[in-house]
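Thread: manganese (II) ion complex, take 2
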Amino acid sequence: MLIVMHHHATPEQVAAVVAAVRALGFTPQPIPGENRVAIGVLGNQGYVNEEPFRDLPGIQELIHVTKPYKLVSRDFHPADTSITVGGVRVGWSNDLVVIAGPCTVESREQVLATARAVRSAGARVLRGGAFKPRTGPHSFQGLGYEGLEYLAEAGREVGLPIVTEVMRIDQIERVAAVADCLQIGARNMQNFDLLKEVGRIGKPVLLKRGISATLEEFLAAAEYIVAEGNDQVILCERGIRTFERALRNTLDLGVVPYLRQVTHLPVIVDPSHALGRRDLVIPMSKAAAVVGAAGIMVEVHPDPAHALCDGPQSLDPADFQQLIRELRTVSRV
Ligand code: PEP
Ligand code: MN
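Output below.
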């Protein structure tokens, strides 16, 4: 961190800042300038807490040089981390992994039919929501533990690992007992208590980017999980909210090559929630593969017209087969 003093700061005020830096166990390095003094903070391993400086007089600005994340950064951990989800490897240098399944588990039959269809077409992981974060309280909220059971049964039946969302801390234990990967949804990306708790389990976590989260916030959220001891985190770009209204969200594909530079954690792309339209899922999945995504996650429903949630963006089994065929033209799937 660099602490920039006001041009009218007194030598006593500079000395007080220097003492506050020392009190934190760091080394202050005063940098005299033409008009003002700056004090460099040396020796910190991570983000420097601003609190001790907040009320000190004479400070103009605190500039963070180190980022609020460290464990997830390439600087700290140069080699790619590859995450194993029920035997399937997800990583920057692994083959593209396709995760597919319904938005929401609606019945035993629906999830089983979907699982069979996506498995035979080439999906490697089965998704399905049992606990659903819905915008309105009157919308279908998912089948809860009953849905989890159907998803687990379908996964076992077709031989695919499963990923499903947890919304609350008290769901983690029961969900982790059957799921191969726990999803943290976009709306919970900054639910810090939930992040810490999934950091304490020994299961992979699929962390979705918040609806208006910056990449720094996204990585800091992942840092919460890794800081608790769980480094099996897959990041998922699922579109962000911008001024553009024609599509459900704006798919920010630049994050894939960018994050590949700054983090060792793999990034997958969810074009279903990003675009909100089934006809755009195939082209944007291919785009995600081309820019190097470690995987894609798409919603598939046996009868999208009658889906209880996200039908307009769900592929039917024939569309999904088409997706896999087209992906194979651009990537090893
Ligand atoms: C989902 O993938 O089921 C979901 C609800 O997505 P998001 O959290 O990205 O909105
Ligand atoms: Mn959905």
